[in-house]
Every structure is written in structure tokens, then in C-alpha cells.
Amino acid sequence: MDTIFALATAHGKAGVAVIRISGPAAFAAGEHLAGSLPDPRRAGLRLLRDSSGVRLDEALILTFEDRASFTGEPVVELQLHGSVAVVGAVLRELGTVDGLRQAEPGEFTRRALENGRLDLAQVEGLADLIEAETEAQRRQALRVLSGDLGTKAESWRKDLIRAAALLEATIDFADEDVPVDVSPEVNALLDRVMASLAIEIAGVSAAERVRTGFEVAIVGAPNVGKSTLLNALAGRDAAITSEFAGTTRDVIEVRMDISGLPVTLLDTAGLRETQDKIEEIGIQRARERAGLADLRVFLVEGGQAPDFKPETDDIVLKAKADTLADKTGAVSGVSGDGVANLIDLLSQKLSARTANIGIATRERHRVAMERAVDALAAAKNFAGMGEEMTELAAEEMRTGIKALDALVGRIDVENLLDEIFASFCLGK
Q1: What's this model's pTM, rounded to 2 decimal places?
Q2: CA distance 317 to 66
Q3: From CA 391, how far away is CA 394, in angstroms rounded?
Q4: What is the pLDDT of residues 239-292, one digit of tens each?
Q5: What CATH code is carried by the domain that includes residue 261?
Q6: Are residues 266 and 317 in the same domain?
């Protein structure tokens, strides 16, 4: 493979910048710059010079041997002073070395996958970790990156291979007396795997919401205080507020961290009958987005009912608590009354939705596991029909194993790789 290099830290001025070199010529490239390299997995301070001997910088250098690095290849990492000029000079010099080229987005991680250092689920976990904004996202991404999903998939796979081997034995010895009835063990193995898969499938939805974020829509009539409440929750003037009805005509989104969970608050247009075509479009969008949101906060005034029927977990509050004598069940973005209670309520309701969260975090994972469950259910059905259906049962078992192999990237994933790695930066 080519030897690749890239800046592994963010672009721009910083205290330290890291340049990563990976591939068969990595050590030679490091020696080209530094003259000599420290022993593998040990750091050493070296002067970096270009091909003319001109000093570029003084850097701390780390080296990793083949199969002992993140990529599974020989790797050299240069920890430079984080000057834009220094980084640019070192990258230009590396570009002059024969056999080296600039890495493509995600190429270091792709090599880790190809060299067996990570499975596909771990690659996705790494991408999620890089994008993590909240504590819940960080914890979830680390679980996937640590290989928990791959470990579980391998356990399922072993059980299915054992069950398939038992069925294959009955086929191989179909013309002889098989001393042991294998069906009880086969059924037990299938039941165990399908039960475990069902638990993981049920948790995908919650895990995916943690990864992408929950949506909470603030809904109510015009001038009921929705935009003011949004600004109070966000701690800034995210939405325009006015005493005139119909100020908000489009959906305004604000990203927040509520108890470690990523939440997007939606300020929607006031719901009412109107002759204004533009406002009417905004109201229609408000209804659509509110309907798709994970949770709705209804603001009502003067004892009025919500504009449409709240769902089980939705929150209904009295608006403009600052004008009410009885502030029970009321909220105001102007005075702050009830805002802390609303945040606590949102935290409780959204946290409850993550109670059955699984290791699998993506729609791709859910589809692969459901395919496996369908195949295993068919295998169990065929196995119960007698010896003449054993071959069909074994074939369905193999289909289930293939589905789990696709889950961690053993097969049928080439079409996914470009999409996955496109989200990575150059140095990852």
C-alpha cells in the first residue's frame, strides 16, 4: 500500500499539531526529516530539517511498528509546534518524498479496518465519538468503539455455527442411525440467539436518538410565549420575539445538552387560522415538525385546550407564568418561572426513553439483525418439519450467519465504506 500522511489535529493555530505518517515507507520518511527515530513506542525529541538541511522545527516523535499501531502499519507521528507555517512547511517537505502521498478523508481508519484492527461497527463508533457533543453520545460511542457489538455478534455467530454443524451432521449421516436427537440443542441455540437479537433490535431506536439527538417542539397559539421560552432555555436570543402575532413563520432550531442528552428545541409558528399565505405555510410546517418530534411542549393560555391532542409523554403547561397568581404547572420565559422544572421534566422523559438502549446504534445494524432473526425463524420452522427439510433449515442458518457477518463488516459492506469514511477528517 502507499504510504500516506496528513495533519491529524485541527487546522489553524494551536499549542501542538500532530502529523501522522502510515505505511511501509513511514520510518524512512521520518528519518528523512529527523535523521534518526526513537525506538518503537517511545518518544524522542528531534530536529526536523528539509532536504536542503534547513531547520523546520523541533518535534516530539513517536514510532509504532507494523501490527502495533492504530492502522496496523508502521506509523510515525510528529508532534510539532502548532504554527500554521510550521505545519505547512513539514507537509510540503513530506510531499516531496518519493512514495508518499496526502491521505484521503478517513483513510487511516479505513486501513485499520482493512488490516483487522477495527471491525466496521467500531469504525462507526469512532465516527460517532469524533462527532459526540454530549456525555450520553460519548459513552455510547465508546461502547461501540470498544468492540462490544462485535463481541456480541461473535457470540451469536458461534452459537449459530454450532447449531448449523449439528444440522449438517444429520444431513451427512441421513442414511445411518444418528444416536442423538440434535433438535433440542439446535432449538435452544436458536431461541437464545433470537431472544438476544430481539433485545438489541428493541434498543436501536433509543440508541439512534442518542446518536442523532432528540427533537422537542414548543407548540401553541401566537403570542403565547413560545419564542421567549426558547430563548430562555437556550440562554440566548435565538428567536425574534415581538408583541405582534405571527412573528415566527418558520421552524427555528436550537441545539442543547439536557442531562447529557442531545436535544434540538423547535420553536414553531403560532397555530391559528390566517389569511396570510406565508404565515399559513409556516403553520403547516409547524404542525408537520411537531408531529414528527419526539416530544411536544404545549403552551396554553386562559384555560384553553391544546391545538391538537397531546401524546402520552407530551407536556402541557400554562403560558405566561409571570402574569399568573397561581404558577403551578406554568412557565414563563420572561421571568424564568417554571423553566428549571421544565428542563427537569424533559430530562426525566427523555432519559426514560434511553432505559432500554442497546449496543447497536444505526439503522444498518437494525436491518442486519432483523434479517438474521427472519432467517433463524425460518430455520427453526424448517427444522421442525422433519428430516426432509433439514437442508433448507441449514441454508437459512447460513443466511442468518451472513447477516451477522455483514453487521460487523465481514461481508457485503463495500458499498457502505465510501459513505462512512466521507464523514472523517483527513488525519483520521
Answers
A1: 0.75
A2: 61
A3: 5
A4: 444 343 444 445 788 888 888 899 988 887 655 455 555 556 666 776 778 878
A5: 3.40.50.300
A6: yes
